[in-house]
Design brief:
Layout: E1 2-6, H1 13-24, E2 28-30, H2 31-40, H3 44-55, H4 61-72, E3 81-84, H5 90-102, E4 109-114, H6 117-126, E5 127-130, E6 136-138, E7 157-158, H7 165-179, H8 181-189, E8 192-196, H9 201-210, H10 217-223
Parallel strand pairs: 1-3, 1-4, 2-3, 4-8
Antiparallel strand pairs: 5-6, 5-7
Helix pairs in contact: 2-3, 4-5, 6-7
The protein binds adenosine-5'-diphosphate and zinc ion.
Residues 130, 132-133, 135, 150, 152-153, 155 line the site of zinc ion (ZN).
């Protein structure tokens, strides 16, 4: 199963991707995670990406597209993958189409997390991330047992620099301008399904993925393309 998760920052794509990756046994490929890792390790990629990310701007298409095209060549992606945070511009979507076409493979489904700005802002501004293992929390919705400490590994929690309110607003604007047009692009290709990103992760999973498992009808009809 090859899946793309599309939707604004704060839609819950990353959290849902972790659940789906376990369920289907396919890798969760997040451009945000890959870029953040490169920034943390101060790799050449991180040096190029950092300033864009801190402002909530997009990293240039060539850079991000190159990363994904290379990542999809790794063996674990052969049986399927979940793309989270890519594509984010029309150029990236076209580049992805080209790359997949060369390998004669297709995306099965784009899940569009339709999310209200209020919910997105509340989620992002309350998000806290473990410094050590990267696990995500939310000060109200998913608080850790001990304030500021990761339940999984005992690491300290911090706020992502781009989750500060001003940067969040810019990220939402960038999303509206550059990423939202992809909804129409994929509607035209007939492979987009809308789900409500306002639902909490568990509820969305139950409503959508338990009822519509890949063995069921809509998935089969998509596979026949
Ligand atoms: P969110 O979806 O919550 O904004 P991500 O972790 O997906 O967060 O992305 C964080 C940042 O990484 C983005 O604001 C952007 O700077 C950069 N980034 C991630 N994916 C892409 C992409 N496909 N194209 C360009 N920049 C990207
Ligand atoms: Zn942790």
């Amino acid at each position: 199963m090859r899946l793309i998760l599309l939707g604004p920052p704060g839609a819950g794509k990353g959290t849902q991707a972790i659940v789906l990756s376990k369920k289907y046994g396919i890798p969760h490929i997040s451009t945000g995670d890959i870029l953040r890792e490169a920034v943390k390790k101060d790799l050449p990629l991180g040096k190029k990406a950092r300033s864009f990310m801190e402002k909530g701007e997009l990293v240039p298409d060539e850079i991000v597209t190159g990363i994904i095209v290379e990542r999809l060549k790794i063996d674990d992606a052969k049986k399927g993958f979940i793309l989270d945070g890519f594509p984010r511009t029309l150029k990236q979507a076209q580049a992805l189409d080209e790359a997949l076409k060369k390998e004669s493979i297709y995306i099965d489904l784009i899940l569009y997390f339709e999310t209200s700005p209020e919910v997105a802002i509340a989620r992002l501004s309350g998000r806290r991330v473990c410094k050590v293992c990267g696990y995500n929390y939310h000060i109200k919705n998913i608080p850790p047992k001990k304030t500021g400490i990761c339940d999984q590994c005992g690491g300290g929690l911090f706020q992502r620099p781009d989750d500060k309110e001003e940067t969040v607003r810019n990220r939402l604007k960038v999303y509206e301008d550059q990423t939202k047009p992809l909804v129409d692009y994929y509607i035209k290709e007939g492979i987009l399904r809308k789900v409500s990103g306002d639902l909490d992760v568990k509820e969305l999973f139950h409503r959508f993925f338990l009822r519509y498992s890949p063995k069921r009808s809509w998935y089969d009809s998509l596979k026949k393309r």
